[in-house]
Known about the structure:
The structure is a homodimer. By secondary structure, chain A is mainly α. Chain A folds into 2 domains: 45 residues, Arc Repressor Mutant, subunit A (Orthogonal Bundle), CATH 1.10.10; 143 residues, Tetracycline Repressor, domain 2 (Orthogonal Bundle). Helices cover 77% and strands 0% of the residues of chain A. The first copy, chain A, is built from 9 helices and no strands. Chain A is elongated and about 65 Å long. At the A-B interface, helix 1, helix 6, helix 7, helix 8 and helix 9 of A face helix 1, helix 6, helix 7, helix 8 and helix 9 of B. The structure holds a DNA duplex.
Amino acid sequence: MPSPKRTAILDAAEDLFRTHGFGAVGIQRVLDHAGVARRTLYLHFPSKDDLVVTVLERMDHTWREHTTARVEQAANTPRGRLTAIFAALRDDIDRPDFYGCMFARAAAEYGVTSAATAHPALAAAVAHQAWIRAWLTRLGKAAGAAQPETLALQLGTLFDGAMTCAQVKRHPQALNAAIHAAEMLIDAAIDHAAQR
Amino acid sequence: MPSPKRTAILDAAEDLFRTHGFGAVGIQRVLDHAGVARRTLYLHFPSKDDLVVTVLERMDHTWREHTTARVEQAANTPRGRLTAIFAALRDDIDRPDFYGCMFARAAAEYGVTSAATAHPALAAAVAHQAWIRAWLTRLGKAAGAAQPETLALQLGTLFDGAMTCAQVKRHPQALNAAIHAAEMLIDAAIDHAAQR
DNA sequence: CTTGAAATATACCGATCGGTCTACTTGTTA
DNA sequence: TAACAAGTAGACCGATCGGTATATTTCAAG
């Protein structure tokens, strides 16, 4: 039973963080956008840092659910699902409210202070990245790739690169090229396994 | 004849922006680190935004010089230079003071306000990305790739992806896999041209 | 009807933000 | 030596920052 106020705060914060970044959005801005009193926010979240982390964790969770659902619905074979991940990526990037990978952006703002005083937001980004990599590895293994871990690293790099490129400047053909590259890498990994 | 004080300010700002991000570093911090008076900074730069942009433009300039020199020294053929770019990327990422692509980080902080009020720092990031893409296209064309523009988009995506991945969390094998992928894409692009 | 938790509005805290201003000290050059 | 540009230290500006405190209201459960 999540409190409705708490949800409203998270919704507002997510919206503002997405469109303006984490550090650029002050608490007051979140309060106004959520229509909630200052006291209420600090009743649900001990600090802004905690709010940021909670937003990221919720984004990670919803992204996993949403994306796995789309991919599993789009294709039945592991091979088909690997490429379907990039089709889902296209849907995300083509949306007008795409502002880049929020986990990479969080790492850009919080991930570079010091190894000892690592910000928890960075941990969320690391977890997100690790989950995607594990998912790709699982699918690659099921598809019969010779080296599923290597394939997962390659596809994951293409995935992150496509988001970063689109965040800086959208290029109409960039994602097509990336998808084509992904298919070549997948085919090569599977063919290499078949011919041994 | 660049003023030594101005250079000291840019050096300090670049160092701090790299290790802590743009928004997280205040003017006072730059002054202390540069050993320069407040008045002096505002004598050389009209605003912090302007300082940020100038730092990015200088980083872009030095990166181009440094990287082209390394690549041209490492290989003589266009094909060899394409892969040498990724070898140079490895050198950058392996450095202990690697904190991710500063242009992607700038885009993460400044690039998402509004299309109308686009921050000039985003323009610097766009220019950086476009230059790399043009360089890759030039090399791809010289190497005899069937579709040099497409190859450049693919390699550029891999390039950005490798930096983003390493920024979130360094993975010992990620760059090896990316380089291997790059070589496969290059070979495929050239072979496809040769057999027609 | 009462109790108590949840939410409200708002004042307040010290600190920091980017940026301006004044007054003084250099060092070089005419 | 006089003039001048460049730099210094530091006070100061209004605004905003994240976070706390106080006092009041709302409303459902016992």
